Amino acid sequence: MGSERSAAGRAAWGVGGVALIVLGGVLIWIIQTGGFGQLPEDLGPMGSLVVRSVTFVFIGGGAWCLVRAGKQRA
């Protein structure tokens, strides 16, 4: 039962985690610079909620991948 994660597997999790965090940062940058343009008024609050949720998933998922990359299997 002592299967160890290979170095390549750990590197893949790490690269995936960094990529997700970078995508989340890019999404935040696009939002801050107004890259999405103006949303229709009836979609404004909902669009903002969706974009913030996606950003949270990117950054949270990236952090989870980084933790998984660093975790030693017993």
From TrEMBL:
The keyword Transmembrane applies. Keywords: Membrane, Transmembrane, Transmembrane helix. It comes from the Bacteria. The chain crosses the membrane at residues 12-31, 43-67. This is Integral membrane protein. It comes from Streptomyces violascens. The lineage of its organism: Bacteria, Bacillati, Actinomycetota, Actinomycetes, Kitasatosporales.
